[in-house]
Amino acid sequence: MKRRSFLKNTSLSAASVITAPYILPSGRLFAATGDRIVNHVVLVLFAGGIRQQESVEQQYIASQNGASTTGNLMRNMLSGAAPTSNLQPLGNEGLWDPIQNNSLASQGTLFQEVIYQEGPPGHYNGHAVALTGNYYPNNINLNESPSNPTIFELYRKHNDPVQSALNAWWISEGLGPYPSLNYSQDPLYGSQYGANYLRPASIFAGSGQAQLGNAQTYQPDDVSRISKIKAMLDNNFDQSGNGLPGIENTPENRELIKGFLTNTIQDVQNGMLDLAVPNGSNFVTGDLINISSAWTVMKEFAPELTVINTANLDVCHGDFSQYLNFLHRADYGVGWLWDKIQGPEGAAAGLKDDTIMICVPEHGRNWVTNNNTDNNGMRALDHTAENIAQLPDYNLPYTNSRRIFTLIVGPEGKVVPNQVLGSPGNPVGESIDIAPTVANILGFDENIPAGLLPGRVLDEAFV
Amino acid sequence: MKKQFLFLATAMILILSACKKETTYVNQTVVDNYIYAVDGEELYQSNIEKDKEKSPEQYLSILYTNLFKTTIDQTDLLQLAEVRRAIGDKQMADELILNGFVNSIDIELPTDSEMRADLDQFVENTYIRFFLRMPTPYEIYELKDAIESDAGLSPELIYQGFALSNEYKFY
C-alpha cells in the first residue's frame, strides 16, 4: 500500500497541475475512476459458518475423535493436496477435480488468519458486519435492516459518478433475513441507494418457475401505455406505497431486469442455465445455483459491485459429513466463477482482468462438537461464543467461531500473488475491513464521511 | 386454508366497513364472486377513505381475486409471497407477478371490442373491480379519453395500470 499510495499521490499531484481547472467543488476530479484498482468487485461471503480447521488448516476429518485423515477440500481456493482416504463424507460424487489449475490463493493473497472481533457469531450479524464494516454487539433483529449503511449504499451514494442499482447486486442463497441487507435504516442512506436484491433459487426455480414461468412480456409501446395509466391514476391519489419498502430501479433498467429474469427462467426451463458443476454431475447444491445465477447476472449487466453468499454449509449443526461435502462443492463454485470471469464470456462483458474477487466467511464454528452425530458417526458443530477457559486443548486468545480467512484474487499487477499473511494467534485483518477494502478498490473510500467505517483497507493484498 | 382466507376476507370487510362514514350500495353483477363481492357491494365514497396500506399477502390475494374472480390457492399465495420477497425492487416484483397472471388462460378479461362497445360501463366496472368505488366524472372523462385516443390501449394494459397504481395498494 505504501508504494501504491505513493504512486497514487504522486500521480494525483502531477495530474492536478494539468487538470486543476476541472477539479469539482467537492475536490474530486471528474474521472474518479482513476483512483480505482479495478472497475469490478465480487464479494463472495463464503458463509454458513466455516471453520479454519476444515478450510485453511486442511484438517478434513482429523478433528473428529478417532480420525486422522487430513487433506484439502478446497483445491480451487487453497493450495494443498486433497484427502486420499475416508472419502465417504463426499457421497457418491466423491472428489471433484478442481477447475482452477492453480489455486486462487496462489494467484492472489490469502489472509489465512482473520478475526471476527466482536458481537455474536451468528449468520445475520456476520453478514451485516462484512457488508457494513461495523460490529454489532448484540444480535440484530432478523426482521430489520442493519443500522449502519451497507457497502451498496456507500457505493451508490459516494461513488463518483453516481451509479444506478444496475451496478450493485446482492444475490443470496436463502431468504430469511438476507433481503434486508440490501440497504440500511440509516436515514441518510436507505433504499434509494440499495442494491438489486435477488434470491435466484426462488425466482429461477421452484416458486418463480411456477408463478413467473409463463409471464407475459411487453413491447416498449405497451410498457409505456401501462405507465401512462398508472401515472394517471396516481395523480388522483395522494399516497404512495412507502410502507412496502424496496429499492427502485429506473423504468428503463426495470424493463431490462424484467426481461433478463424472464429469459433466465425460460433458460432454466429449457435446461440452458450454465451450472457451476463438472460435466456429467447432477449434484447441484443451493449454493451452486446461487453462484451460477450470479454469473448470469454478471455477464448480463457487468455490475461494478456484486455480493454473493453461500449458506448450505450451515448444515454442520447436524451433519458434519454434509458440511464437508457442501464445502467442497462451494469451493468448486467459487473456482468456476473466477474461471468464467477470466474466460471469453468474462472478457466479452468487460470483467476479465478488471475484477477483484474477495472471499470471506461470515464467521467460524465452535471448537467443541455438539451432541448430533451424522450417518458416518461424525459429530456436528454449532457456532457460539464458547468460553475459552473451558475448552480442552484450545490455546488461542479468541474463540474458534471468531477465526476466519480472507482470500483476495485479481489481475496480475494489481493483486499480490502467492502471498499468505497471518497465523493462529496473530491475525492480520478483521471482518470490518472488508467494506473499506471494497470501497478502496472501487475508488470511493475517500468520499465516505469519517467514522462510518472503523476498519482499514487490507492493502497488503494490492501491488 | 379456505377457512383462513375467509377469515382474512371477513376481517377485511370489517376493516373496510369500520372506516367509512357513509356507504353506497350498487347492485351489479360485475363484482360477483369476487372476494368481498356480493350483490349490494359496499363501496368507498371516495379514495380519501383509503389510508391503510395492504400487506404484500393482502395485495397479492386481492389482486388474484380481482383478476380471476376466485380466491387464491394457499400454495400459490405462499409462492407469490416468496417470489416477491426474493426480488429487491418491489415494483418490479409486482409487475412480474402481474405479467404472470395476465398470461393465464383463467384470467377474466373483457375483450377490446367489448370494452370499446360501451366505454362508460367499462370505466365504471373497472373502477369498482379494482378500487371498490365509482369513478368521479373527471376520472371517467380521463380514462375514456385515453382509450379513445389510443387504439392499442387494451383492457389488459388498463388492468395492469390499475393493479400497479398507488390507490390499489391501499384500503
Please, how many helices of chain B? 8
Structural class of chain B: mainly alpha
Q: Give the termini separation of chain A.
A: 7 Å
Q: Looking at CATH, which topology of the largest domain in chain A would you report?
A: Alkaline Phosphatase, subunit A
Query: What portion of residues of chain A belong to β-strands?
Result: 5-15%
Helix/strand order of chain B: HEEHHHHHHH
CATH superfamily descriptor of the largest domain in chain A: Alkaline Phosphatase, subunit A
Treating each run of at least 4 consecutive H or I residues as one helix, how many helices of chain A?
Answer: 12
Strand order of the largest sheet of chain B: 1-2
Summarize the structure.
Chain A has 463 residues and is α/β, with parallel strands linked by helices. Helices cover 30% and strands 9% of the residues of chain A. Chain B has one domain (2-169).
Structure notes:
The complex is a heterodimer of chains A (463) and B (171). Chain A is an alpha/beta fold. In chain A, helix 9 (286-301) runs parallel beside helix 10. In chain A, 30% of the residues lie in helices and 9% in strands. Chain A has helices at 2-19, 104-107, 123-132, 151-158, 200-203, 206-212, 220-235, 251-269, 286-301, 320-342, 344-348, 434-441; strands at residues 40-45, 109-115, 168-171, 196-198, 305-309, 355-360, 403-409, 419-421. Chain A has 3 domains: 1-30, no CATH class; 36-199 and 283-461, Alkaline Phosphatase, subunit A (3-Layer(aba) Sandwich), CATH 3.40.720.10; 205-235 and 245-272, no CATH class. Chain A has an 8-stranded mixed beta sheet with strand order 4-3-5-1-6-7-2-8, sandwiched between helices. Helices cover 56% and strands 4% of the residues of chain B. Chain B has one domain (2-169). In chain B, strands 1-2 form a two-stranded antiparallel ribbon. Mean pLDDT of chain B is 80; it is low at 1-39. Chain B is built from 8 helices and 2 strands. Chain B is mainly alpha-helical. At the A-B interface, strand 4, helix 5, helix 6, helix 7 and helix 8 of A face helix 3, helix 4, helix 7 and helix 8 of B.
